[in-house]
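User: quick one, fold this
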Amino acid sequence: MKTTIEAPIARKIPKELEKHNDIRIDNYFWLNQRDDQNVLDYLNAENEFYQQETAHTKDFEKSLFEEMKSRIKEDDSSVPYKYNGYWYIVRYEKGKDYPIYTRKKETLDATEELLFDGNLMAEGHGYFRLVGLSVSPDNTMMAFGVDTIGRRQYTLQIKNLITNEVFSDTIENTTGSSTWANDNSTLFYTKKDELTLRSNKIYKHKIGDIKEKDTLIFTEEDDTFGAAVFKSKSRKYIIIACYSTLTNEFHILNANTPDADFTLFQPRIRGLEYSISHFEDHFYILTNHNNATNFKLMKTPEHHTRLEHWVEVMAHRDNVLLEDIDIFKGYLVISERTNGLNQIRIKRWDGQDDYYLPFDNETYTANTGNNVDFDTETLRYSYNSLTNPSSVIDFNMKTKQKDIKKEQAVLDPNFDKINYTSERIWATAQDGTKIPMSLVRRRDTKLDGNAPVLQYAYGSYGSTIDPYFSTIRLSLLDRGFIYVITHVRGGEYLGRQWYENGKLLNKKHSFTDFIDCSKHLIAENYTSPKHLYAMGGSAGGLLMGVIANEAPELYNGIIAAVPFVDVVTTMLDDTIPLTTGEYDEWGNPNDETYYNYIKSYSPYDNIKAQSYPNLMITAGLHDSQVQYWEPAKWVAKLRTYKQDTNKLYLVTNMEAGHGGASGRFEALKEDAQEFAFLLDLEGITC
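Assistant:
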């Protein structure tokens, strides 16, 4: 007989928050004290409650984990790519969580050189992440960043690749990325503000000097901007990038003269977005200049970079979003998006050829890949769809022959892609706008209104969730689930205007789009409210919070991963990471108009005395993107308001941050937890 377990009840300590003569009472404000033992006790109590409540699913959860793991080729490796005379390879070994980085000189038959073994480096750490591998031009040294907490504050180090010595001098609180000047002894890197974690200072380090001698060469003073430093693909320029949601600015320096001063490329103009790529004696510029909403391509001489010198190369098109370019010695490759679908266009610089790669699907993703080699006729790109495993393809831009270098292995004897089908469907939103959804299911799943549906969306920052294949998802599809990606406004699926119509004072479109798509799925007999589930993370977790408040009757369950749900309080606190840099996304609530609008949808501020769906909510104690206390406060308040007996779980990873567990198998365990939650609600136990 199951014993009734009492859910943790967080104590109430009223905190009065006043702005624009409006007073909000926050009973759980105290939960933002990360090192307070009372806070840790509450989070641990919620974790224990979750474990006890779900004890009956643990065996199933373990079997789901083993099932997901069994589909993965554990001793896998990446497709090698060549850079500056070396082939670089990332591989995994059976039973191990972390990648191993190696290289081979000139030929793949050469002796393998071990660069880093993430498994050895991760020993003794509950969380581990290695980023920013940057090799010196003479191939003798490599800079890298390590995070062992999950807060994305990376410690930068340098390894001598000849002696395998890792220099003892470390540089803390960096972004983890860095770039070398052409003298092989000067390294540029970015540090973060200790409090806000804003990337705001660029330093120059000389090999052999102690870090205290490092030179501060640039400070981004505007707290709505971040800064980064990188090298052009041509290897001629070191580039400092200053960025905000709506505005860009770049500073350039010849990589042969690292001790000279950087030159301002084009002063920032609010609303002017641009990125730069160097080729021969010009810079190529992807920009929204002169109301080019979907962006256009321009160029300018490398020594005359101000706006008045920019000339158009490729005009703006109302129905085509220009997303990126890849420059090669003989070719320009343009990544576009038309009617939501990825397009890859290839143009010869001499004008002799101009064509698109052919794709014949509506639920696919195609992206240019790791194209670090400048002097080549080979374009590397990736392709996958909701029903087709991911492929890495080398395409000869001259002969137009393609070579599939690798297709993702699915180690399941029962898997056959012919057993699955995908489609793109459209719902009509409240304002008449057509909202697309990408959908996948088994062919034998009946569309009689009884199929469980997991509806996913993100919908912010212009970030598009393209249809992609997932071996993990098979554990739902094979048990009768239909999986739906909802392309709500706030992403850029249908162009830049799709984003503009889902942010700031248009943000509510993201929420109503999702709800209208849910209603469409029900009306068209894909599912019913008893079998409809929703999922989103981070800003997508905000979306989950809103639909839980506004349309709880449509969903049997919701998973909100590291959800951004206390929008007013967070956006009023400029000491929290990301806040000031995101005023152009959500609005600045110091302005009363934005304050009132944000407050009208902020999930934490709009909890109601009503029935809520079954809810699983996750958090990361060291999360730098969405602070752990947002989901914690949300759950604490929900417990006092909800008028039902449905499940409400808060699961906090006490050793990780925004991305969850770092190891590939530990991350799978989190997926298994979430799937077990959904399948248990459906009464599916094996």
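User: anything notable?
Assistant: The chain is about 20% helix and 35% strand.
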